[in-house]
Protein 1
Amino acid sequence: MLKLRDGIVELYRKVATSLPPDIEDAVKAAHAQEADSSTAASTLAVIAENIKRARETFRPLCQDTGVPVFYVKVPVGLSHNELRSTILEATREATQKVPLRPNAVDVITEKNSGDNTGEGFPVIYFEETSGGTLTVDLMLKGAGSENAGQMYKLPLAEINAQRDLEGVRRCVLDAVQKAQGRGCPPYIIGVGIGATKDQVTRLAKEQLMRKLTDVNKAGELAELEQQLLGDINSLGIGPMGLGGKATALGVKIGVNHRHPASYFVDVSVGCWAMRRGRLIW
Amino acid sequence: MLGDETGTAHMVDPRILTLPLSAEDVSSLRAGDLVLLNGLLITGRDKVHKYLVERRPPKAEFPFDVSGTVLYHCGPIMRKTEDGYVVVAAGPTTSIRVEMYEADVIREYGLRGIMGKGGMGEKTLKALREAGCVYFHAIGGAAAYLADRIKKVVTAWKLEEFGSTEAMWFFEVKDFPAIVTMDSLGNSVHKNIEELSLQELKKLIGP
């Protein structure tokens, strides 16, 4: 799997150093909406210039190259264990070559492994696919935005959130207002709703892999995504939390069936530098 | 408008500041001011703060005098070359993580500026007022852009012990852009935005 390893090293490079076009377009559109000579406009101008420079010079957009999260769709018959070893080898190599910042810290010894590998690091999710193509999706999830995420258990009296989509809307707005500028807005917000905590957390993060231009297949959710985007952008938090119109660039919602007695909502916050990419093998 | 070497204008009417800052520099800065920093600054994040507060190393232990300089919350990506270290990416990290330490660090080491992202809390705001210091907000995620404003890696402190992400780096910067968001009079952009956004939230979801 030598060539696949090289492919994954290149995927790391691409994801760390260049922002997907849909997000870059959204940053530009947000810049155009802010008042001339405002802090928000200056901030977005620097961000736009940073995106350009990082891509042109093959340098990471952000020094926090984050936690690598892999979503791998595997054709029948390919070994998950072998793929995992290949991803780990590629991670070590990419840490040197791109370079990535070494971010894997042992909780007991506090020692940084130095190569972005460790227990459960990177995060790797496998899923079997019926086709013959191996698809490797990679997200580099910055810690500033990861720390800004929240989970809710409905009903929740403090924000008068009941077990319905209006309750979900309240959770998302509450989470963004609490996050303020700490997770590097304008944000991309992923929401997961369902029966168990582990499931909704993963589901919320997976939503961040969707293109901003992607429209939710469920009409009710597509509508809620649009409404939330408008609501969030009326909060006035703005780029970097310093005030302005652009607090979010997109909201994406995913649902699982829930238990009659449970209604969990997870809000995953993505920074403007929402780095994601795909390798098809 | 101030242009940079690429001819693009990014910051409107910035104040040009030279480090170390004086007490007068600090008292004249107001929340909302755009600035360009020039001179020698230091970096420090989680490990540096914990160490400084727990061990209180004397100022003389640092390779350069840190009085009056800016402490930048940053864990850069560095590349080791034959000619020493090169900065690859160096944007700010979230400042609130060192809230419990910062007030003591400001007082003990005579810093005139703290720089990071996301702002800090009441304890730091009080220390800024009492000690004559300001909080600069750098642009989160703009790591390649900001690395280009670091003209020289002067030296590092605790590099072996803490590793390159957590070490205290001494960087010579030129026209490093930032926004004053907490000043020495007790004004905080973060506090204002938090209050305003809470009012907006209440309009959207009720009290």
Protein 2
Amino acid sequence: MNAGTKFAIGAVLIVGSVGYLMASGVRETGQYFLTPSELSQKIAVDPSFYNVGMKVGARVVQGTVTKDLATRTLRFQVTDGRARYPVEFRGLPPDTFTDSVEVVVEGRLRQDGVIYATNVLAKCGSRYEAVPKA
Amino acid sequence: MTVLGSLMLWLAFLVGLWGTLAGFVGGLQGRPGLAESARQAVFVLCGALVVAVVSLEWALFHHDFNVEYVAAYTSRNLPTFYTWSALYAGQKGSLLFWATVLSGFGSLALLLTPRRQRPLLPYVAAVVSLVATFFISVMLFGHASPFERLAYTPADGTGLNPQLQNPGMVFHPPMLYLGYISITIPFAFAIAALVSKRLDVEWLVAIRKWTLLSWLFLSIGICLGMWWAYVELGWGGYWAWDPVENASLLPWLAMTAFLHSVMIQEKRGMLKKWNLGLIIGSWLLSIFGTFITRSGVISSVHSFTQSSVGYFFLFFLLAAGTASFALYANRLPLLGAEAQLESMVSREASFLFNNLLFVGIAFSVLWGTLFPILSELVQGTKVTVGPPFFNLVNIPLGLALLALTGIGPLIAWRRASLPNLQRQFAVPATVGAFTLLILLVTGMRDVYALIAIALGGFVSATIVLEFARGMRARHRQYGEGYVLAFARLIARNRRRYGGYIVHAGMVMLFVAFAGMAFKTETEATLRPGESVSLRSPYGSTYTFTHLGISQYDALNRQVTAATVEVQRDGHKIGLLSPEKRQHVDSFGRPTFQPSTEPSIMSMLREDLYSVLGGVVNGTEQAVFRFTINPLVWWVWYGGVIVALGGVIVMWPGGGSPAVKRTQAGYAVKLVAEAQ
């Protein structure tokens, strides 16, 4: 067997393992990224979507944020204009979190209809640009 | 002054178009007049853009809030330091900065390129002009001119986002930009070589230095970015696999692969196609990074506001990608290898595997970054992958690379013999095995961390051994003392030993990354006098005691600070004071959201990282997060050593063997041509 062939085998091994790692990575760690209305549609069709880790991208409903600093519990509702879900998060929210920002909530929807978040990202579209003056 | 600025943009736009046209036509038709005109065009372009930058800075410093950009990014009470850096804090200014720096690099490349590469220059000038013209046209036609005026004049500007008011942020973006931008120069040389069919070793030497420079800027930029994220954002880490971070890593990976494989082309005349592909790829990835940052197609904490500017970049990316790969495909027959791979156990083979790994990592990072878009296109549902995906894929690949870092530089070219292998690797392999043993005995059980640190021991031993051998040889041959021998060894052979220093820095980084496997944290709500304890991975116990809250006004902010006493195993070692800041404008009105300012105690073995989550209304009861981050210190110093090694490799003069050999080869060719 010449060196070229041996190298080709090595290359196939590397490319194969990169491919395998990527495929299994997506399978094991991929999460649905849904809007609240997509989530409600999925849940209506397939109840197995309860208790599945996912991300929900939506807007915080103004006036629904309650912060209990002492117990570090944050409750708010998210919506995309059609469906609406309450969210509960334990931990410190990011600086950019306020009511009416866009958020990405990472967590699980339980049977009680509440999304229990493990992470909340405030997707302030204008993170580095000042809020435009009205 | 803004009129002057706008005027200069238009001038630059027209000159850029001319430079593109004159360069390509002049080069293709062999008309020296036109070629020279293209060269001049780049200088004029640079001059015009510098004037535009000066006029923007003038508006910034004179608080001309009628200019929209000035009002959006500065305020009267913004420290001067940050007023200066507001030039690239926003989308529009950064486009101007980009075009200006590119024309500056282009001018340098045209001035510094040695005479014998002259035939390439018209095309280089044309490519630089074309890319700069693209950026200028985005400003002019994408509603992104930094010189636009408002219909009214606000009394004060909005000020700079507090998270950007950090020294790291003054240097991090320009460093990254310098890295991104300077890739255009090797890319321009690559296109020039392809168009003119002058695909010999000469252009490769021109390209290598520029790629190194670009790699160096990008490395420093990425490290500064990690540092900024760590000290400013307050989530307790330095790398989150955010799309924008990934975007900066992608060209870095491609360039690192190139800097390795280019050695094989120099030594053995192999891999020409691969190398050109890597250069074109690196450049496209850098434009891709710009697109990601500016378009908002992929949600990221770093993005600028969503804007139409994204479409310009998408179009440019597709057009440039298609054009350069079409040209590349057309020239493939000219890029045949001059030698064949002789053995799997050789330096060539180890470099080839190294390249495959780099490209594999880059591909998986690109894939993961684009996955939300791809999955939506294919399945109709968006699926995202996050840090777990990137860690799962890249830790094993990264560790394989680390192993090659030790093997590659020591294994013989062409074909390594068994005695060669024994001589080179007996000691390092023993050191690696011993490291593993010690870690196991001390109780470390994390598989990846074990492998990473054991490989770190192995690679460090190969590096130390190489230095020791070189120094001993000099000591014997020239009778130099060991310190002098060490210095001369590096000075006389900068590429090789500079490279080893970069590798040493990378080992430190890998060990530091492994340390993050042992991160521990806790959140607590404490009244003054109360405390919380956290056990470090080394077995000591840290106690954090909340002493109280203080509030005061600083220059442009109202600060709420907590004072926390830290004890290690009962002994006081210092104070932490995490803050919440509310930034205000010069009238005392709040601007932006309150921002978190972590307080960090950095030590050799671990960092204590504290964040103030907030204060319960009207009391001194406060919410904290305390994190123990092992070995973070090593990330910053590893980064410094990588950069230092890079500078040594780049240092001009002295003449690395490759340059000399190329020059010798060129002399032979000249003689042959003369006869």
